[in-house]
Design goal:
190 residues, 5 helices, eight-stranded mixed sheet
Length: 190
């Protein structure tokens, strides 16, 4: 597949961000910073764009019955998270990047979007490592439903588990994760 020009992703992402209704002031601030990043110099989708960071994509995956969410225990971070990661040059957009990452990390290839928009936005710091300076990940998160509960972990994933909504708080402890848990639990009462 060929490398896509960064600006071919910019307009569709701008629309998704503008159409997204943030759940709180924190998420509104994240959306505003993401819109600013879209106008920055360079390729904000490239993992080499460090000032202030770059876009990533992830997905909260519901089980086929809608009663659980798939979380991975990330090997490097040793934290339970939703599958996701960097945008590759050949990804058409962030939704495609999230789906590719899900397939790579947990082997799920058949997912459907629960809705056509963004589910959640998050910006989190990434500490400096050997080959890269400290920067931020501007994570655009989608809500998906798996067609099967069968999972296959890759080497970046220490573990993966379907987690009932009531048990999410035992695995996701960061304040921004608590915000997402409230959004996910709201799905149950709909």
């Amino acid at each position: 597949m060929s490398e896509l020009a960064p600006r071919t992703r910019t307009a569709p992402l701008r629309v998704l961000l503008q159409e997204h209704a943030p759940a709180c002031d924190v998420e509104t601030a994240y959306r505003d910073r993401m819109l600013t990043l879209l106008d920055s110099a360079g390729d904000p989708f490239s993992r080499d764009h460090f000032e202030p960071g770059h876009f990533t994509a992830s997905g909260f995956i519901l089980s086929p019955d809608g009663g659980s969410v798939l979380l991975i225990l990330h090997r490097k971070l040793d934290r339970w998270l939703q599958p996701g990661g960097h945008v590759d040059p050949e990804d058409a957009d962030l939704f495609a990047a999230a789906c590719r990452e899900i397939h790579e990390e947990v082997g799920i290839g058949e997912v459907e979007a629960v809705d056509q928009g963004v589910f959640d936005l998050d910006i989190h710091p990434i500490p400096a490592r050997k080959t890269e300076p400290a920067h931020e990940h501007f994570d655009v998160r989608f809500l998906l439903r798996a067609q099967s509960i069968q999972i296959t972990r890759n080497d970046e994933t220490h573990d993966a588990a379907w987690t009932r909504f009531d048990d999410l708080a035992d695995r996701m402890i960061d304040p921004d994760e608590q915000r997402v848990i409230r959004k996910l639990q709201a799905l149950v009462v709909r």
